[in-house]
UniProtKB/TrEMBL annotation:
InterPro entries: HNH, HNH_nuc. GO terms for molecular function: endonuclease activity; nucleic acid binding; zinc ion binding. It comes from Pelagimonas varians. Residues 13-68 form the HNH nuclease domain. Residues 77-116 are annotated as: Disordered. CDD domains: HNHc. It holds the Pfam family HNH. Keywords: Endonuclease, Hydrolase, Nuclease. Transmembrane segments: none annotated. Coiled coil: none annotated. This is HNH endonuclease. The lineage of its organism: Bacteria, Pseudomonadati, Pseudomonadota, Alphaproteobacteria, Rhodobacterales. The keyword Ribonucleoprotein does not apply.
């Protein structure tokens, strides 16, 4: 992680603000677990055209496990066939991934009542 922008004071401040706003891993919380967030992730990776210093809404507070899951399955492969960054559904059957098309984006099955 010792590469730009992660070594800058601007990123370090942004990271602390995000973790202060969301101290619990956002994905684990959707999975019904309480796990401390220790990583801040760009929702749209810099390598895919994302901003180095996005608004807080462009970042996710994650635990190391969820961050590694997203990085390996989505960021490094420039997406995947489903477009989902995180696998699985919550207790109500709704996709865990807040970027999933079911939540209102393209390719949604929301109207048909199908989610996962």
């Amino acid at each position: 992680m010792a590469r730009w922008p992660y070594i800058t004071s601007k990123w370090k401040k942004l990271r602390l603000v995000k973790l202060g706003q969301n101290p619990i891993c956002e994905i684990c919380e959707r999975r019904g677990m309480t796990v401390e967030a220790n990583t801040v992730d760009h929702i749209k990776p810099i390598s895919q055209g994302g901003a180095a210093y996005p608004e807080l809404s462009g970042l996710m507070a994650l635990c190391a496990r969820c961050h590694n899951e997203k990085t390996a399955g989505f960021d490094r492969t420039h997406g995947n066939s489903t477009g989902r960054r995180f696998k699985g559904c919550d207790a109500e059957g709704e996709p865990i991934d807040p970027s999933d098309g079911w939540w209102g984006g393209g390719g949604s099955d929301h109207e048909s009542g199908s989610s996962c």
